Amino acid sequence: MIRLPQGPPVTFRNNFLWCHIFLVTPLSGRMAAPLPRNLSVPPKALLLAVCTVFCVAQGGLAQAGVGAWLADPLDTDSGLSASPAQPWATQATLPDLPKLQGLSVEEQAQIWTLPQLTAYALAHNPQTAAAWDGLRAQAASLGMAKSAWLPSLSLNTNFSRRQAASTAGFTVPARNSANPNLTLSYTLWDFGLRAAKVDAARAQEWVAGFTQNQNIQTVAFSVAQAYYQLLGNQSLVLADEKTVAENQKNLEAAEVLHRAGQATIGALYQARAAMAQAQSTLAAQRQTVRSSEGLLASTLGLSPQTTLKITSLKLGQEPPQLHSAAKTLMHAALTANPTLQQARAQVAVAQANVRSAKASGLPSLGVNSSYGYLYQGGFRPGDTWTVGFTLTVPLFTGFNTHYQIRQTQALRDQAQSNLAASRNSTEATVWQDFHNFQGAIAAYPGAQSGLENAGKALEVVQAQYRVGQATIQDVLLAESTLAQARYTLIQNLVNSYVALAQLSQAVGIPLGENAP
């Protein structure tokens, strides 16, 4: 054996000097075994390389610090920022962002209706595409579960080349061998384990299907909400334009009366202030329209910069009507609401998982068969085959199966409780949305009457102001009342359509007339 010098640690330079002295000095004592005769590398050269690597490594560790090197031997901290205050600069190559869809020339020129917008959104919105991909993935999972009913067949081949050297100094000739093996296995009986896994996978597919339906309804409602909001904001722009025109008439009348000496300068200033306020409101409302246009385009999977042409909202039209009662709608939601059906499917998944957990602790019986062929240099080829049965009886798994059954039973009870909560939530949502819609419908006649009376009142006050029987304050108050009446009627009409769309989403089926 080689004896290393004893004593305190030495530096890199001393280690290298010691290695040199050690190598040039004849070795004393006996080695554990003689070196092989066919060793092509001189012993001193080999030992010199080993000592050099050892000395360089020890010197590097002494300079960099063994503790720092052991803390991060693969230098993973090199990509971190210098301090928490500095942002992280990534060098990663991330996937490209998907390109947004664009409209054709014909689509940009057409006037879109709500059904057309909804159909386009369902086909191009990434949310519906992701839900459909999830359904496809669950369908593949069902196929994976069903594959357990089929036998499995595998082929493996070993290729090797073997050569051995004896301690006496001679070598055995090299020998090549190949050993292909074909293995067939099939489970004959497993006490319902495969059937339970198939049922669980099928129920998971139901969950994914109802999730897709839920995403479809969510996207459809988002389109309807953005559509009606854009209609309302466009109508508010028209209302603000009428308000600006009315204030322009009031300002012109105030200027005429002021020049005639029948109105004070204060009345003129009030008319100018009302005009400036109306113009400011109109400018802000036009920007709100642009924001609503971007939101509608985004729900369709388009760039927010896309401009869509839609029909205008008519204030004289009647709001949507609904002839179903709340009780009828709640009953329909029990079988049509996708969220509620998804909760029911989750219960089916949990029940199948309980059966699977119980079957995993029972015996299973399988059959196995294999055939192999051996090619070996210097010998004649030979083949082997086996056929046998395998009986697996779980005796003790450290109570793993016991707690797995308890876990699945608890998850089943949780799924049933979630189903009960989902039913209560669905019925409560349908009830509230129904009465919100009825409230918007009930308020519409009053809003319509308020707009008509406010318009007539403004005409009367303006006529009185021209002959000096009313002040500018009376005119501005009447004009403000008319503007507020327009806002109330527009908002009431938009709310009625949005409430109907929301009620349709809660029930799970289209209701009434959703588009103006």
UniProtKB/TrEMBL annotation:
Predominant location category: membrane
Membrane topology listed for this record: Peripheral membrane protein
UniProtKB keywords: Cell outer membrane, Cytolysis, Hemolysis, Membrane, Transmembrane, Transmembrane beta strand, Transport
Family affiliation: Belongs to the outer membrane factor (OMF) (TC 1.B.17) family.
Name of this chain's protein: Protein CyaE
GO function terms (MF aspect): efflux transmembrane transporter activity; porin activity
Function: CyaE is necessary for transport of calmodulin-sensitive adenylate cyclase-hemolysin (cyclolysin).
One term under GO cellular component: cell outer membrane
GO biological process entries: killing of cells of another organism
Pfam families named among the record's database cross-references: OEP (PF02321)
UniProt key word Isomerase: no
Compartments it resides in: Cell outer membrane
Keyword Ribosomal protein: no
Coiled-coil regions listed in the entry: none
Organism of this sequence: Acidithiobacillus ferrivorans
